[in-house]
Amino acid sequence: MLNNAICLSADSSGGGGTHIPGGPSSPELRRAKHIGIAAVSPEGSALCYRELFRYAIHHVGEKGHPTVSMHGEPFEEYLAAIVRDDWHTIGELLLKSARALKAAGAEFCICPDNLAQNGIHLIESVSPLPWLTMTEMVTHAVAKDGRKIIGLIGTNMVMHGSPYQALLGLEGIKVIVPEKGDADVLNTIIFGELVHGDVLPESRARIINITEKLKAKGAEGLILAFSEGALVIDSYNSPLPIYDPVGLLAHGALARSTGTVAR
User: Which of 18, 23, 28, 248 sits between 20 and 30 A of 180, alpha carbons compared?
Assistant: First the structure.
């Protein structure tokens, strides 16, 4: 990961491309807000930037995209803090990124990492930038669809200690997770393969099988609560409708930045 903020897209001038009334190319709306990405998982962060660009093309057109900057402290430092269950260090790492992104001109932050969402809440009050979180975006999408029982897969710490459960519970939505044996398999696949960008066919088959078990228990949809989820399961091979937090966060960030799509 890079230790300095880098500008990944800098076209916010508008003009040309597909015009959307009230969009960035319209004189009645100011330029798109500069988005800051606090990177944790390299794969998840890359997927988030890709999704931002895809959504921008679809909703804004070829011009008028927001500026996007990314900053990440070394991934190994996050992993070491996770092993120690040291959320204050995770929060401090995120705060370093927020400060760097503020210096780069960002106007708000996102972090496309499910586990790190807990750290965001620890530093929001002292952060130089406001945060848009995955948990907000996912809860909004699941509730909007009227789901009452939702499956959630990810690392052990996310499945059993995630802020998703609290927010979804407030909406009257029950969260179910895999049994311990399947949860341990998921944890091994994520940390042993997916964070490195590796996807083995047998691992994909195991994850789909675990999803089928959640469906049999009554799950009406599936939250991919690991940032690399899109590498292994999608709407074509999933037995359940998918809620991808990385994609939903990217969509929400574009909405906040441009004002052209609803959250």
Answer: 248
